Predict the structure of Putative anti-sigma factor rshA.
Amino acid sequence: MDRDSVAGPVPATHGLRSDGRGSHSHGPERACATLEVRVSQIAGEPGTQDFVEVRLPAAGAYLSVLRTATAGLAARLDFTLDEIEDLRIAVDEACAILLQQAVPGSVLSCVFRLIDDSLEVTVSAPTTDGRAPERETFAWTVLSALAGKVDSSVADDRTVSISLYKQRGAGPGPA
């Protein structure tokens, strides 16, 4: 197969110690959500892109997973510490915008793609009203300042996506 993929649900647990027992005396905590991580690399095909996708419950309690994934991937791609922090905050802000209108109990998807010297991060969630984020808001200004380039789209099924494009070595602001 040309495509190598690692995928599958990863149970998310809270309060587990390294020995697998719960942090409380009540025994092991049960899984409270399912996180899914997919990694794809299509080797030897020109013009293709590697990607990492993280899917998790559309709830603020899980955003720390995306902040950590963002920082880790950007660090591995040799972004500077300032660029890593900018991306981490931008992903958090984009998710916060989506969570305001996300369908309760739905899944938030975050796809990371390396395109030349830029990292594209697209966060998506099914929404109740299918409205694109307003671009004349403070939150959108913050996203643009942190990421450089920001786009949004709405699919026919009312899934709203926000894409952030951060170029390595571009510094703050538009790339």
Q: What stands out?
A: The domain at 35-167 is CATH 3.30.565.10 (Heat Shock Protein 90). The helical segments are 63-76, 81-99, 138-147. The radius of gyration is 17 Å.
